[in-house]
Write a structure and sequence with these properties.
This protein is mostly beta strands. It has a single domain, classed as Rieske Iron-sulfur Protein, CATH 2.102.10. 0% of the residues lie in helices and 44% in strands. The protein is built from no helices and eleven strands. The strands form three sheets. The chain has a four-stranded antiparallel β-sheet, with no helix packed on it. Strands 5-6-7-8 form a four-stranded antiparallel β-sheet, with no helix packed on it. The chain has a three-stranded antiparallel β-sheet with strand order 1-11-10, with no helix packed on it. The relative contact order is 0.23. Bound molecules: FE2/S2 (inorganic) cluster. The site of FE2/S2 (inorganic) cluster has 12 residues, from loops.
Length: 108
C-alpha cells in the first residue's frame, strides 16, 4: 500500500527545535521512533542518546545536565552518556544527530 506510513522515518527527520534544548541541559525526545534524550552541552553542540537504561531497560529521563533512571537510580552525564552513578555500568548508546538551521535533525 503506497499510502501507508513507512515503518521508520527517513534520515534527516526533524527531532526538535535547537531552541527547545537548554544550553547545558537536555530534553526527552523521539528519534527514528525510539525514545531518546537530546542535550546541548555548549551552545550549538548537540548530542543525543538512547533513553533505554543500560541496566535493565527502563526509560531514562532528561534532568538538566544529567539523565536519571527512575527504576534503580542510575544517573548518566547528559553531555557524554557516561554513567555517573550505577547500578548501570555501560554508557547510553549515542544517536547521530545534526543541527540544520534552527532545527535538530536525525543524522541516520
Ligand atoms: Fe535503570 Fe535499573 S533499569 S537503573
Amino acid at each position: 500500500d503506497p499510502s501507508a506510513a513507512p515503518d521508520a522515518p527517513a534520515a534527516g527527520d526533524d527531532v526538535a527545535a535547537l531552541a527547545d534544548v537548554p544550553v547545558g541541559g537536555s530534553i526527552d525526545a523521539t528519534i527514528n521512533g525510539e525514545a531518546a534524550l537530546v542535550s546541548q552541552p555548549t551552545a550549538g553542540q548537540v548530542v543525543a542518546f538512547s533513553a533505554v537504561c543500560t541496566h535493565q531497560g527502563c526509560m531514562v529521563a532528561a534532568a538538566g545536565d544529567e539523565f536519571h533512571c527512575p527504576c534503580h537510580g542510575s544517573i548518566y552525564d547528559a553531555a557524554t552518556g557516561e554513567v555517573i552513578t550505577g547500578p548501570a555500568i555501560n554508557p547510553l548508546p549515542e544517536i547521530a544527530v545534526a543541527v540544520s538551521g534552527d532545527r535538530i535533525i536525525a543524522a541516520s
